[in-house]
Every structure is written in C-alpha cells, then in structure tokens.
C-alpha cells in the first residue's frame, strides 16, 4: 500500500522505490485518462479493433471447448478505456457467447470511460470481489507492468533495497539477501534485481480462484522470462521516455513483467502454465492476417490503416517480440489457442 502522498514522495524524505511507485501511479491513474494521442501512451487495443476481436474469439473458443460457455464470466484487470472488452464481447456475441463482465479497476476516471464502452459491466476495487460461483477467464493487457516493484542492488556491503531520496535512487541500510532469487545471489556488483510483490499476490489470489472455480488467465505485457538482473523502471510522458523520479503522479511508471514469475506463481497454486510466446506469434496464430484482410475487403478505404496496425501489433521491431503472452489454465481445461 502507498505510505506517502506523491507530494511527500517528491521531497527529501526517504521511502522505498516500491512505495514511491505505488503512490505515484495511484495519483496518476486516479487523475486522468492516460491513453491515446492526447495522453502519455497507447496500448494494443487502442491501436486496432483487431486486437480485442481476436482475444474475444480466443475466449469463446476456450470457453466452448471447456464446456463452460453458459457459465463463464469475462474478467478484465485494469481495462483502460474498455476498448479491448467492447471489441472482444462483440466478437464473442457472433459466436453466441454473452458472458457477465467483471472489471477490476481502481481509477474513477477510467471507470467512467469503461462504463461508456461496456455499460453492463460490474466493477471491483480488487480481485476479492469477483464472483465465486463460476469459471473465470481473466484478461490482463498491460496491467501487471503498472504495479509497483521493489528494486534491490548488489552493493559492496551486500544486497540492499533501493530507496528514493532527494530525486535519486540510493541503496538502503538493511540487508535484503533473502529477497534475491538464489540463481542471482552472486550477480556482479551494481546488479539490480526487481520483484513485484503486488503482481505475485494478485496472481496467487486469481490462480486460487481459477483452481477452485475453473477458467484461465491471459497475461499480455512487455517483459522477460526471469530470473534476470536489470533496471526496467521507466516513465512515459506524452509518448516519450521521461525521468521516473521527477514530478510523481504526472507520468506513467512501469516495469517489465517477469513472465517466469507469473507462471511459477500460477503453478504453485495449482494452475497449468502454457508456453510464453511473443505477441506477434500469438496474434498470427489467432488469424490476424485473415481478420485484417476481411476488414479491408469490407472497408477498402482502410487498407493502409489496417496494414499499419497489423504491423505495429505483430512485427518484431514493433510490439511483436517485446510483448509476451502467457496463459494459465485450470488443469482440467483444454489448452488455449494461439500457443502452437
Ligand atoms: N488494459 C488497458 C489499460 C492499461 S493501463 C489497455 O490495454 O489499454 C493500466 C490499467 O490498470 C489502467 O486501467 C489503470 O487504471 C489500471 N490499474 C493500475 N493499477 C491498478 C490496481 N492496483 N488495481 C486495479 N487497476 C489498476
């Protein structure tokens, strides 16, 4: 939980990077819609309707093959403007599926946007309020990257947590060797190790639900398969990289997601993780080229726009490789599409 206001975070007092990032992002998301040209960043569902439509088909295919088409709920974590959900639900309706919709969202500004896009949804502050009586298929696009991280630095005195003090990141006093994955314990001096306790605990809660109720979780984000060292904290302001420690609450702070940690956390709670694949491979396997061609036939004037969007989502030099996709499923559920 945030322990200081963003104003306090900017002053000379000392706090962990984790608490700084939690307070800064809470203030940031509570005060604005950060998406789109006028905002700070753009996400896959805002690039093209094809993204949400393909996820809707993925969802319907999985739910129907699991025999859960009548009972399953659509859950989305941090749904932004609700664009992904609106596109996915429209595509699902064509497959005869109209699941109840549950959004986990803390920002009042974005909740209002989501209500305009998906009026029938129910909203929750956290995963605790999700329904307990039915299978859940959970979608998380660029959600985990927004959760606060802890950073640890290998110093001459041992592993220390990084603190924010006077606009700088400095190692704290306490020994933190116990927080470092065993494979990284002997990393060179100056190495940084990141952990996201909020991601781990939200995923563990959801995995417990899915293990008990049935269902699956689809996580899409920029990230890597750890354990690995490296400082991935970044800030986006008006579509450009900015100083993450300056003016907290005015820019989007993110960190890369450790997909191996998500998979291991799910496995420990009884779910079966699939392979982690690039977004390009996933969308290609789901048929983005066929979908782009069908849309271009219906709207020839949009051919160039559709080609550009497809390339941005799929090509390795754009989002295709850095963005990764991981599905975790109930062990009795069939393997989801897109990972072959
Ligand atoms: N998934 C959307 C938006 C990504 S931005 C898209 O792809 O366009 C991150 C989203 O997560 C925003 O909706 C933000 O308000 C929400 N969010 C950030 N931290 C959160 C938290 N701790 N709990 C719930 N939602 C959170």
Would you summarize the structure shown here?
The protein is an alpha/beta fold and 340 residues long.
Plain-language structure description:
- With 340 residues, the chain is an alpha/beta fold.
- It has a single domain (23-153, 185-282, 321-329), classed as Rossmann fold, CATH 3.40.50.
- The chain has helices at residues 6-10, 17-31, 44-47, 49-65, 83-94, 108-117, 197-213, 259-268, 279-285, 288-298, 303-314, and strands at 15-16, 73-77, 101-104, 122-124, 136-141, 150-155, 158-165, 168-175, 192-195, 215-224, 234-237, 240-242, 252-254, 257-258, 272-273, 277-278, 323-329.
- Strands 2, 3, 4, 5, 10, 14, 15, 16 and 17 form a 9-stranded mixed β-sheet that branches. Strands 1, 6, 7, 8 and 9 form a 5-stranded antiparallel β-sheet that branches.
- Residues 1-11 have low confidence and may be disordered.
- The structure holds S-adenosyl-L-homocysteine (SAH).
- S-adenosyl-L-homocysteine is lined by residues 29, 35, 43, 45-46, 78-80, 84, 104-107, 110, 141-143, 146-147.
Index terms:
alpha/beta; Rossmann fold; 17 strands; disordered N terminus; binds S-adenosyl-L-homocysteine
Could you tell me how far the N terminus lies from the C terminus, measured between alpha carbons in angstroms? 39 Å
| SSE ordering | HEHHHEHEHEEEEEEHEEEEEHEEHHHE
Contiguous uncertain segments of 5+ residues: 1-11
SS strand fraction: 15-25%
Structural class: alpha/beta
CATH class: Alpha Beta
Oligomeric state as shown: single chain
Instruction: Return the CATH architecture.
Output: 3-Layer(aba) Sandwich
How many β-strand runs? 17
Taking the sheet with the most strands, its summary is: 9 strands, mixed
Count of discrete structural domains: 1
Shape: globular
Small ligands present: S-adenosyl-L-homocysteine
- What would the average pLDDT be, to the nearest integer? 96
- Alpha plus pi helix count: 11
Task: Tell me the CATH topology.
Answer: Rossmann fold
Rounded radius of gyration (Å): 20 Å
